[in-house]
Design a protein that fits this description.
181 residues; mainly alpha; 10 helices
């Protein structure tokens, strides 16, 4: 359902609630207000994205993908501040199937903007992993430094440390490879 339709339904329900209050039907007016509030909340937070996030936390990627594919045209169905999170979720799901193909989603998520610092850190950490997979050390170090700066609450500190250790191992592997020639 497009966001314009959600707003129209929300205002219609709010108008109906006011009319019910005016005519003295308080018992029906209060649930109608709550229903209109629910419709307004789904304008800002798409229900398909919320359910997909929940399934991703439960590690059920198949069901999360079902709910994300229900969003057919994200520019009409989502609010502009949700574009980045939509691409982040797509990138997280794609990274489980084909990690190198998820780079475009993480870059799109960062370009649209993510409001929470730990989500920015997650996207940059994932990009660092992709850069390491491509054996691009400089880019991986840049993304790791940015991820460490964005991770203010130290939620991803262990993953960043592990990634730095793997980056050090990458140098040793290259040295061993070149020393045999």
């Amino acid at each position: 359902m497009s966001n314009l339709v959600r707003l129209i339904i929300g205002f219609a329900l709010l108008g109906a609630a006011v009319a019910l209050f005016v005519f003295g039907h308080w018992g029906w007016g209060i649930p109608t207000v709550f229903l209109s509030l629910f419709v307004f909340i789904t304008y800002f937070y798409n229900e398909n994205m919320l359910i997909a996030q929940w399934y991703l936390r439960k590690d059920n990627v198949a069901k999360a993908e079902v709910f994300l594919t229900r969003i057919t045209n994200y520019e009409k169905q989502l609010n502009k501040m949700q574009y980045g999170y939509y691409n982040l979720l797509l990138g997280l799901m794609e990274s489980r199937k084909a990690p190198m193909k998820s780079e475009k989603y993480f870059k799109a998520a960062l370009s649209f903007g993510l409001h929470m610092d730990h989500n920015v850190a997650l996207a940059k950490l994932s990009l660092a992993g992709i850069a390491m997979g491509k054996r691009n050390k400089r880019e991986a170090q840049m993304y790791l430094a940015e991820a460490k700066k964005a991770d203010k609450n130290k939620l991803l500190a262990d993953q960043i440390k592990q990634m730095k250790d793997q980056l050090g191992m990458l140098d040793k592997q290259q040295q061993v490879r070149y020393s045999h020639r």
